[in-house]
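Action item from last meeting closed. Structure (71 res):
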């Protein structure tokens, strides 16, 4: 069985991402935390009135803007 390489993840905490899968398709969010073992990312939706953390799979988001100041 071939497993995908976890080392190729280019998402970082603080990045702005767009969700590319349902039910939040085309929503923008900020990355709060990344779990490389489970291949999940915890995000906070930018358009929400109350900020709620949402956990989605890494392949369901794409980076649209990277926070340059955070290292």
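Sequence:
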């Amino acid at each position: 069985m071939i497993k995908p390489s976890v080392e190729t993840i280019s998402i970082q905490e603080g990045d702005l991402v767009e969700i590319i899968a349902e039910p939040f398709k085309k929503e923008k969010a900020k990355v709060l935390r990344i779990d490389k073992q489970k291949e999940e990312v915890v995000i906070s939706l930018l358009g929400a009135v109350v900020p709620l953390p949402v956990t989605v799979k890494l392949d369901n988001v794409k980076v649209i803007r990277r926070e340059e100041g955070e290292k």
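Note appended to the action item: The first strand starts at residue 16 and ends at 19.
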